[in-house]
Amino acid sequence: MSYPSISQIDSDIKKVRPTSELVTSHTVISGSDAEAQIAVVGDHTYDPQPSTYRRILSSIREPMAEFFGVALLIIFGAGSAASAVLSTNSGVSSSPKGDFFSINFGWAIGIAMGVWVSGTISGGHINPAMTLAMATWRKFPWRKVPAYILAQVLGGVVGAALVYGIYFGAIDIYEGAGVRTQATAGIFTTYSLPYMTSAAAFFTEFLTTAILSMVVLALTDKRNSTLSPGLLPLALFLLFIGFGVSLGIQTAYALNPARDFGPRLFLLMAGYGKEVFTYRNQYWLWCPIIAPIVGAQAGALLYDLFLYTGQGPLNAKGDY
């Protein structure tokens, strides 16, 4: 008994090979009975057209990763704040279940989990300020920016809605049934302490986001960082713990327009009233949105100007 040779099998495959195919593998026996050989050849499974579901998934997968990343950030962050704040009421809990450090810990876990979920799909920006910085300084496609930012903001809305729903009863006990004020709005959005001037609040957010941008670019710079890509979320976890305990008390360190604006939109819909937007002459716009965007650009500029040796807007050739 004889078997077809490998060359014969390969020739037959080429005759029927389509332009679009999925390639798996299987084994065949070639040669004589006395001296059989095992060879791996292509098993060509036809995939003429992707399904409608696959086409839709391909177009929304990256924005959805950003959506889920921000939603997780808010769930862990606002959830930890809700636990710490609402449990100070004896009607909610017999003893407090958190403090300033636990809130920082919650936001740090949120940033790590959000980036872990989205990182290899969308880049793990989960922050409009970082998306704009990456588009400006790291060739992230500008055509993707609107979808990313929309997804990030919607993730903030949904994340806040989920936490609000979970703690709805506790909020009623804490504030009174149907009463909604800044006392619990601060669980979801950022407010500066009363003594802070507008300039001081803006600069705090500007500086903190500049540091965030510089550190992210350093951690993702192959010529500078020795960090494994899979450990980036852990590094960001440590960074956000640092932000919270060092720079977080005065403005609640938004650093992220979607982290503040998304939940603020939800609070407006949840009955907190227009005060969430009229506080301190549109604080919502110039402190947690404009300051982080400008700060992220400044941090990227400083990194590229003094530390980055790769190709970028300031160095077209990419080398010294």
UniProtKB/TrEMBL annotation:
PROSITE patterns: MIP (PS00221)
Pfam family, one: MIP
Gene3D superfamilies on file: Glycerol uptake facilitator protein (1.20.1080.10)
Main location, first listed in the record: membrane
InterPro entries referenced in this protein's UniProt entry, alphabetically: Aquaporin-like, MIP, MIP/Aquaporin, MIP_CS
Gene Ontology MF: a single term: glycerol channel activity
Segments passing through the bilayer: 64-85, 105-126, 147-167, 199-219, 231-255, 283-307
Record keywords, A-Z: Membrane, Repeat, Transmembrane, Transmembrane helix, Transport
Annotated localization: Membrane
Reaction it catalyzes: H2O(in) = H2O(out)
Membrane topology note: Multi-pass membrane protein
Gene Ontology CC terms: plasma membrane
PANTHER family: AQUAPORIN OR AQUAGLYCEROPORIN RELATED (PTHR43829), AQUAPORIN-9 (PTHR43829:SF9)
Family: Belongs to the MIP/aquaporin (TC 1.A.8) family.
Name the record gives this protein: Aquaporin
The organism of origin for this protein: Candolleomyces aberdarensis
